[in-house]
Design a protein that fits this description.
- With 383 residues, this protein is of the alpha+beta class.
- The protein has helices spanning 5-33, 38-46, 65-75, 80-87, 95-100, 103-115, 232-268, 280-308, 314-339, 351-357, 368-382, and strands at residues 120-123, 139-143, 146-157, 164-170, 181-187, 193-195, 209-220, 270-271, 274-275.
- It is built from 11 helices and 9 strands.
- The strands form 3 sheets. Strands 2-3-7-6 form a 4-stranded antiparallel beta sheet, with no helix packed on it. A 3-stranded mixed beta sheet has the order 1-4-5. A two-stranded antiparallel ribbon has the order 8-9.
Length: 383
């Protein structure tokens, strides 16, 4: 659903310009320093990038799902670190609050998330509870007006720099699976909460990922999202179903960027006195890339519109994430192939960095194999 096409096009045009004028020239610096420079974070905050999907009454732009994915398609046409820096605030790090938070919780935290004053993070995955998130063992024990949280979360995006964590913990120790899981808002600075140094990773330099350690963390009962125990997994699924559509767009933006780089190289690189784009086998690689980008984009927009219409999109969200992340991997491989040896040399082209960066897309927020299983599960449920 697009509410005002003129305003949306203005936003998309501004993002498109910012990506090319600010993000692209800074990509090598981000890779070398392994962080997004403070002045660029400030620039994104000034433009409202942290609050795209946060309601307007809390200082965000209140973008619909369709508007959000169109923005994501533009913002992600650069190194992953830029969109990841704002992505938890405008996506997975705020969505639990937006979906199920109490009025007081929303008023306390959403304006600060929307402005970029604080950075949010979604702490679900554990060492023994990744693909099967319902197996989590982090505990939350009621103690008067507080809960005491103990556990360890891993592979958490923005954990090393986050100020506010949405933590999934088991409030009923006698339950297994999804039952008895609750969601809590945990602030950095609460005694007993610590985070690890950023992991050393294959790619995505500048996007810090790490662990969240909870050792007897005393969290006010007022920070139980929604004020009701046992609803955490339902909240998590609301977050993930929307985020999977969002992430599908964030997979497709880098694919567009990689194809742009490969097209420019194929037009200028010459072999046998002609541009390599004129060789049919090279042209076929480029054509396959564009075809998959268009298919992913159409699927994402269709699913986003269905969500805005209030439809059940659990099946379609999984399909989006599965197809777009796998397609991005295939496109990365083809684009490196178009570059030939130059595609393997960091000094010659950023395509080598993109190739490493996008590999993670097929792993986080549900591996491709988990989505295959979920797709069939949802098909059977509907049947």
């Amino acid at each position: 659903m697009i509410r005002d096409s003129t305003k949306l096009e203005t936003l998309l045009s501004e993002v498109r310009t910012w990506v090319r004028a600010v993000a692209h020239p800074a990509e090598e610096r981000v890779a070398a320093e392994n962080e997004v420079p403070a002045e660029i974070v400030h620039s994104m905050a000034q433009r409202g990038y942290f609050g795209w999907s946060i309601p307007e009454e809390y200082g965000g732009l209140g973008l619909t799902t369709e508007e959000l994915v169109l923005g994501a398609l533009e913002l992600s046409q650069c190194a992953v670190a830029f969109r990841a820096r704002v992505g938890t605030n405008t996506g997975i790090g705020s969505e639990a609050l937006v979906a199920d938070g109490t009025p007081d919780q929303k008023a306390r935290y959403l304006p600060r998330l929307a402005s970029g004053e604080i950075t949010g993070s979604f702490a679900l995955t554990e060492p023994e509870a990744g693909s099967d998130a319902s197996a989590l063992t982090t505990s939350a024990r009621r103690d008067g007006d507080d809960y005491i949280l103990d556990g360890r979360k891993c592979y958490i995006t923005n954990a090393p720099i986050a100020d506010l964590f949405t933590v999934m913990a088991r409030t009923d120790p006698d339950t297994t699976g999804a039952r008895g899981v609750s969601a809590f808002l945990v602030e950095r600075g609460m005694k007993g909460l610590s985070t690890s140094a950023p992991y050393r990773m294959m790619g995505q330099a500048g996007s810090p990922v790490g662990e969240v350690i909870l050792e007897g963390v005393r969290v006010p009962a007022a920070n139980l999202i929604g004020g009701v125990e046992g609803q955490g997994f339902r909240t998590a699924m609301k977050v993930l179903n929307k985020q999977r559509i969002h992430l599908a767009a964030l997979c497709t933006g880098p694919a567009i960027r990689m194809l742009d780089l490969a097209m420019a190289h194929a037009e200028t690189r010459r072999q046998s006195w002609q541009a390599i784009i004129d060789f049919q086998l090279v042209a076929a690689l480029l054509a396959d890339c564009r075809t998959e980008i268009e298919a992913a984009r159409a699927l994402i927009l269709q699913t986003a519109r269905a969500r805005d219409d209030g439809a059940d999109i659990a099946l379609e969200a999984s399909i989006c994430k599965y197809f777009a992340s796998e397609a991005c991997g295939r496109i990365a491989d083809r684009c490196v192939q178009v570059f030939g040896g130059a595609g393997y040399v960091t000094d010659h082209s950023p395509i080598e960095r993109y190739y490493r960066d996008v590999r993670l897309f097929r792993l986080y927020e549900g591996t491709s194999q988990i989505h295959q299983l979920n797709i069939v599960k949802q098909m059977r449920r509907r049947a």
